[in-house]
Automatic annotation (TrEMBL):
Pfam families: Cyt-b5, FA_hydroxylase. It comes from Balaenoptera musculus. One of its GO terms (cellular component) is endoplasmic reticulum membrane. This is Fatty acid 2-hydroxylase. The chain crosses the membrane at residues 184-204, 230-249, 286-308, 314-334. GO terms for molecular function: fatty acid 2-hydroxylase activity; heme binding; iron ion binding. It catalyses: octadecanoate + 2 Fe(II)-[cytochrome b5] + O2 + 2 H(+) = (R)-2-hydroxyoctadecanoate + 2 Fe(III)-[cytochrome b5] + H2O; tetracosanoate + 2 Fe(II)-[cytochrome b5] + O2 + 2 H(+) = (R)-2-hydroxytetracosanoate + 2 Fe(III)-[cytochrome b5] + H2O; a 1,2-saturated fatty acid + 2 Fe(II)-[cytochrome b5] + O2 + 2 H(+) = a (R)-2-hydroxy fatty acid + 2 Fe(III)-[cytochrome b5] + H2O; hexadecanoate + 2 Fe(II)-[cytochrome b5] + O2 + 2 H(+) = (R)-2-hydroxyhexadecanoate + 2 Fe(III)-[cytochrome b5] + H2O. FA2H is stereospecific for the production of (R)-2-hydroxy fatty acids. Plays an essential role in the synthesis of galactosphingolipids of the myelin sheath. Responsible for the synthesis of sphingolipids and glycosphingolipids involved in the formation of epidermal lamellar bodies critical for skin permeability barrier. The keyword Zinc applies. It is found in: Endoplasmic reticulum membrane; Microsome membrane. Residues 1-29 are annotated as: Disordered. Keywords: Endoplasmic reticulum, Fatty acid biosynthesis, Fatty acid metabolism, Heme, Iron, Lipid biosynthesis, Lipid metabolism, Membrane, Metal-binding, Microsome, Oxidoreductase, Sphingolipid metabolism, Transmembrane, Transmembrane helix, Zinc. Pathway: Sphingolipid metabolism; galactosylceramide biosynthesis; Lipid metabolism; fatty acid metabolism. Its cofactor is Zn(2+); Fe cation.
Length: 388
């Protein structure tokens, strides 16, 4: 099993300690509280355990960085264990253990499937590396809507918003507005694909009539005929232009750092993209909602229709619209799908996961890394320890 694939699973679960909201990492365990863990993990009779070295402490971000580099760390409550060297020898199988990297394994130690012996628990203690620092997520009150709180974070907002949690986000007080602010992924193709097909068909027919010419407004003599054979090229141009727009919006709009003292710009940033970085596995606000999307889409439609003859601009627009749908679907898939190792989407996923967890100021391309190459914002490949 590749280290990377495991990492991606890891990251999904990694920040579950953010779930407590109380600042107590143990609280995140749900039914099994601190008591259960004390019995699971702190089984060290005086004879067995030499005085532990002064405990190192690791922030969730530091733990994430190690997991991203391929290490297999687990925790028991706040105690962290580096099992990277041990996974291959785990009697219960490497897969089982690797699938729990980044997680609290206190409950798993008790089984099922297997109740680990006292010796197994002592064995685990050999891999103790330190403690997880208190959870920084309680800068906000997760029981209340976040939208009205983020603006108060000021200079702490940027760091906070880039520390992902696995819990979903509540933005608004009102249940109705909260529900309206969410979008299911398939609404994107359902709404935009029919429009894209309709526009493609009607502009193709217009081009086929044979009287569309480019540069007509400047000169009638050198204008260029635009027969229907130009349709695929114009459509592809639209797809390509979308991938550039996708990159530029993500880099310069979504990742614009709001001023620390601006309550409303922080709020705006949070709604546009911050919430996705805070809760990358909240699927309810991953794709663009249709209403704001239609404003942006209408803007591009008017713009292209103004600078190009109707059917030419319209065809480029239709290609761009398909590009947008593909982008939103790929983005969703990168978060929730498991592409095959070595495939195109697999590499995109690795790239995007790094954008979320470690390199928020690079790796802006979602459906292609082309523009990251072009603008030199590609995330460097980190060499990670080879794990079999
Ligand atoms: Zn085990
Ligand atoms: Zn981003
Ligand atoms: Zn994302």
């Amino acid at each position: 099993m590749g280290a990377r694939h495991a990492n991606e699973q890891v990251r999904r679960r990694l920040t579950s300690q953010g779930g407590s909201g109380s600042g107590d990492v143990r609280g995140a365990l749900g039914g099994r509280g601190a008591y259960a863990q004390a019995s699971s993990c702190e089984l060290r009779s005086p004879a067995m355990a030499p005085a532990p070295p002064p405990a190192a402490s690791f922030s969730p971000a530091e733990v994430q960085r190690r997991l991203a580099a391929g290490a297999c760390w687990v925790r028991c409550g706040a105690r962290l264990y580096d099992l990277t060297g041990f996974v291959r020898h785990h009697p219960g199988g490497e897969q089982l253990l690797r699938a729990r990297a980044g997680q609290d394994v206190s409950a798993d130690l008790d089984g099922p499937p297997h109740r680990h012996s006292d010796n197994a628990r002592r064995w685990l203690e050999q891999y103790y590396v330190g403690d997880l620092q208190g959870d920084p997520q309680d800068l906000v009150d997760w029981r209340k809507p976040l939208l009205w709180q983020v603006g108060h974070l000021g200079e702490k907002y940027d760091e906070w918003v880039h520390q992902p949690v696995t819990r979903p986000i509540r933005l608004f007080h009102s249940d109705l507005i909260e529900a309206l602010s969410k979008t299911v992924w398939y609404s994107v193709p359902i709404i935009w694909v029919p429009l894209m097909l309709y526009l493609s068909w009607s502009y193709y027919r217009t081009l086929a009539q044979g009287n569309v010419r480019l540069f007509m407004s400047f000169t009638t003599e050198y204008s260029v005929a635009m027969p229907e054979s130009m349709f695929p090229g114009l459509f592809m141009l639209g797809l390509l232009l979308w991938s550039l727009v996708e990159y530029l919006i993500h880099r310069f709009l979504f990742h614009m750092k709001p001023p620390n003292d601006s309550y409303y710009l922080i709020m705006l940033h949070f709604v546009m993209h911050g919430q996705h970085h805070k809760a990358p596995f909240d699927e309810s606000r991953l794709v663009f909602p249709p209403v704001p999307a239609s404003l942006v889409i209408a803007f591009f439609y008017v713009f292209l229709r103004l600078i190009l003859p109707e059917a030419v601009g319209g065809t480029v627009f239709a290609g761009g619209l398909l590009g947008y749908v593909i982008y939103d679907m790929i983005h969703y898939y990168l978060h929730f799908g498991s592409p095959h190792k070595g495939s195109y989407l697999y590499h995109l996923k690795a790239h995007h996961v790094k954008h979320h967890f470690a390199h928020q100021q690079s790796g802006f391309g979602i459906s292609t890394k082309f523009w990251d190459h072009f603008f030199h914002t590609l995330i460097p490949e980190e060499p990670h320890p080879k794990i079999q």
